[in-house]
Write a structure and sequence with these properties.
Length: 112
Amino acid sequence: MESHTTATLSASGANVAAISNSHLAVGQLPSMQPLPQIRDPEWLKVEVCREFQRSACKRTAEECRFAHPSKNIQVTTDGKVIACYDALKGRCTRDSCKYLHPTYQIKQQLEV
Ligand SMILES: [Zn+2]
Ligand SMILES: [Zn+2]
């Protein structure tokens, strides 16, 4: 029969495949977004005890595994306080420190 007809057909078929492949590659580009990872004071953040915030925590600051911050310590919008880095190192000399001085339990959580 006429063998050259089939040859032309398969050639054009390969052409179509090549075009759709390049379309796919372009479509995949915008989804690759690198997430910025700023871990600076983030690792010093300690979750504040929810019960303590409602004055309902029966534990002392030492017994509770969540933070019991005093009034001068600023609580972040996500319900956390920043632990005092100097206190972690055992050398905070500030009188009324605005960072949380971590208890033994909280230190354990921070020093992973
Ligand atoms: Zn508590
Ligand atoms: Zn401190």
